Amino acid sequence: MNKTETLKDGSPVVIRSLKVEDLDKLMAFYAALPADDRKYLKVDVTDKNVVRRRILLTEQGNVFRLVGLVGDKIAADGMLEVREEAWQKHQGELRVIVAPEFRRKGLGLLLMRELYFIAAERGVRMVVARFMRPQEDARRICRALGFREESLLPDYVTDRTGQAQDLVVMAADMNEFWNELESYYHATDWQRCQ
Ligand SMILES: CC(C)(COP(=O)(O)OP(=O)(O)OC[C@H]1O[C@@H](n2cnc3c(N)ncnc32)[C@H](O)[C@@H]1OP(=O)(O)O)[C@@H](O)C(=O)NCCC(=O)NCCS
Fold first, then answer.
1. Contacts of 44 (CB under 8 A, 6+ apart)
2. What is the pLDDT of residue 190?
3. 6, 65, 78, 126: most buried, per Cβ within 10 A?
4. pTM greater than 0.90 (yes/no)
């Protein structure tokens, strides 16, 4: 996919699939994140080999990666991982991260909307988000998009500093997710005025 959308501040953003040639741009995106954001990520994004291997996962067919580009710069990274095991085949895990200077401009929402379309095409019926308890923005946006808290696993994961953290698991039915996404998308002058 490759499409151009408009952010709330009027700047154009290209949303397209992530390619292996984007590795250096992606490393620059991760390097510019505040240390506090990197601290809670699932993998060590300062390690180029780890990041390259994660991009190559998209060749397996159940992992989809999208990026938002403003000019030549990656401003956001989104991922949908459709579960492969038979008992979880109806689930898709969503992850979105937006560079601080592009937050609250609708970019997170635009990426989630595109990831929703991919999930719907793949027959996903439940979207899941997993993050560490201190990731309050993730929790707020998930609540606003119709996710409910499924579980909180105490000291289940380790952050980049080696400290144990609680893992929050939230999930939403695809219909609820779509309804909330659409009400955000259409409720703002930002999209109406395009
Ligand atoms: C969570 C995150 C992806 C949101 O991206 P974004 O581009 O800023 O989100 P949007 O501008 O599309 O926001 C859509 C709506 O979500 C809600 N929202 C987003 N960030 C919020 C925040 N910090 N506090 C409260 N509500 C928030 C708002 O309702 C917002 O609409 P509004 O700005 O019109 O009020 C971004 O803050 C981020 O990358 N955080 C760090 C990484 C992370 O936690 N990722 C999620 C892991 S699944």
1. 50, 160
2. 61
3. 78
4. yes
Asked whether 119 and 134 are in contact (CB, 8 A), the reply is no
Largest CA distance in the chain: 47
What the chain holds in terms of domains, given with CATH numbers, is: 2-192 (3.40.630.30)
Residue type, 117: F
Atom of ligand 1 nearest to the CA of 110: 12
Q: Please give the pLDDT value at position 193.
A: 55
Ligand 1 centroid – CA 138 distance (Å):
7
Residue 116's alpha-carbon distances to 56, 66, 108, 109, 120, in angstroms, are: 21, 12, 12, 10, 6
When mean pLDDT is compared across 33-37, 127-131, 152-156, the lowest value belongs to: 33-37
Residue 72, C-beta contacts closer than 8 angstroms, at least 6 positions apart: 25
Q: Is the CB of 128 under 6 A from ligand 1?
A: no
Q: Indicate which residue's Cα is closest to atom 22 of ligand 1.
A: 137
From 72-81, 83-92, 121-130, the region with the lowest mean pLDDT: 83-92
CA 85 / ligand 1 centre spacing (Å): 30
- Residue identifier of the C-alpha nearest atom 30 of ligand 1: 104
